[in-house]
Structures are given as structure tokens and as C-alpha cells.
Amino acid sequence: MTLSLPPFTRAIKILIAVYAGIYVLLLVLGAVGKQGIEHEIFDFLVLAPHDVVHGKIYELVTYGFLSGGFWDFIFSMLMLWMFGSMLEVAWGSRKFWEFYLFGIVGAAIGTVILVYGLGNFIHLNPGSPAFGAWGAIYAILMATAMLFGEQEVYMFPLPISIRLKYLVGVLAFIAFVSALATSGTANIAQLSGLLFGYIYVKFVPRRGLLFAFSETSYSFRNRYHRWQRRRAGRKFQVYMKKHGQDPKDYFDEYGNFRPPDDKPKGNGGSKGGWVN
């Protein structure tokens, strides 16, 4: 048995540095007796479904960069490194950044919807906060299971290997049971992360959402310009007919402007306007 560690890719380095910076900042504020400021920052960044529906949309992103304690920080960063690097190597940094933010926001949106949709049945409080990277990490787990499901990983510290798709299935089952057994929103965020990870891999174009949006915007822009040209052409034809002139006297068959007093050039019999 050999131990192979994943690479420290660029996006993973930046993410771990951001998480570590926020965690250490809050830790230092608490250590120097500024617990009030620490709590204000924490309460400002966490996700509370009640606050989101009342306008605090920024919480859909900020909650995902908090940590719940030392061990939560350590294990979440280990999971991010181990599985996130697999996606970044396969997709590239740009698409991975897009997917990570998609997972954070998707997990938050799913949490808000489930809290207000099923809160009465599974005893979820809209004011209960959710925080941490686990929503995005579970989205990463779902994506890696869909792309590299047959790859075996070792369940450290136990010398037991398991296929990635089965590992994700076990974690999903634990999150589901925990969501039913407890009244917190953390497990709901994990389940929502799994769902949005599946949606991204299954339905988003291969080059990512940004590429799809840019292609769509260019398509609409080109259609609009073609419509403008057709509209201008119809107006010009109406104008020329009102003045008793034929538009063909000013434009050739390719739509190029041609002064009416110019004589046609043979150009060796070519139909084009110019021959090099």
C-alpha cells in the first residue's frame, strides 16, 4: 500500500488561505478580549434563512467561509484539499472557482427553501444559523463521485479502501439521517450541496456557466444587430421607393454600397466587387 497525497493546486491554496485567515482573525479577537466584535462579525456572516428572505442576500455566500471550531476547520480543509484538487486538475482553476461558488450559493438556497418548505415537518427553525464550507464540500464530493466514482480511496486512519461513489453514498446517508434526527440546518446545507453538485455536473455545459452565459449574450447581441440591419434596410427601401428610385442602383447583390454613376467593372468575369 502506498500513500499518494493530492497536489496543492492554485485555487485550493487560495481557499485554504482565506479560510485560515478568517478563522485566525476571529480566534485572535476572542483571545484579546474582543468577544463582542468576534460575535458581531460571526453573526453578520452566518446564514440565517429568516435574514435571507428579509434582504440579507450576501449571507448566501459569506456563511461558506466560516468555521465552527478547530476540528471543523481541520477536517473541512482536508476534505477540500483531497477532493477539490481532483476537480481543479480535471477542470482547471476557472471552472473550479465557478463550481465552488455555485456549490456555496446552491447549498444556501437549498437550505432556505427546505427550511421554509419542510420546516414544520422536520422541526427546522428559520432563525437557526448555518455556516461552514461543508455545503460546497459536499457538492465537490458529489461531483468527484460522478466523475471518478470507481477510484478507490483509503479511509484514514483505517487501512480500508472504498470506492469514491460508495463513500459519498455513505456520507449522504449520514447527512440525511442527521437532518431528520436534529433540528439544525448544517445537515440540510450538506444535502443541498449534494443536490447542486449533481445539477452542475449533469446539466451545466462542459465549459461552465460563464461560457454558456457569454455565448448566449453574444447570440442575443448578434440577433439584435441583424434585426436592426433588416429594419434599416426596409426603411431605406420605403424611402427610395417614395422618391422613385431603385435601391439596386445603390447596392450590389452583396449589400455593398455602390455609387450609381460608377461603371461596372468586369474583373475578369468575377462576380465579386474586388479581385486582388
Helix/sheet category = mainly alpha
Quantity of strands, as a count: 2
What's the shape? elongated
Q: Which fold name corresponds to the CATH topology of the largest domain? A: Rhomboid-like fold
The proportion of strand residues reads: under 5%
Listing every helix as H and every strand as E from the N terminus to the C terminus, the arrangement reads HHHHHHHEEHHH
CATH superfamily of the largest domain: Rhomboid-like
The rounded Rg comes to: 29 Å
**Unreliable stretches:** 271-276
Written account of the structure:
The chain has helices spanning 10-31, 35-45, 49-52, 59-62, 70-91, 93-122, 134-148, 164-181, 186-203, 209-242, and strands spanning 152-154, 161-163. It is elongated and about 90 Å long. The chain is an all-alpha fold and 276 residues long. The longest helix is centred in the C-terminal third of the chain and has 34 residues, at 209-242. It folds into 2 domains: 10-204, Rhomboid-like (Rhomboid-like fold, Up-down Bundle), CATH 1.20.1540.10; 222-267, no CATH class. α6 packs across α9, α7 (134-148) runs parallel beside α9 and α8 runs antiparallel to α9.
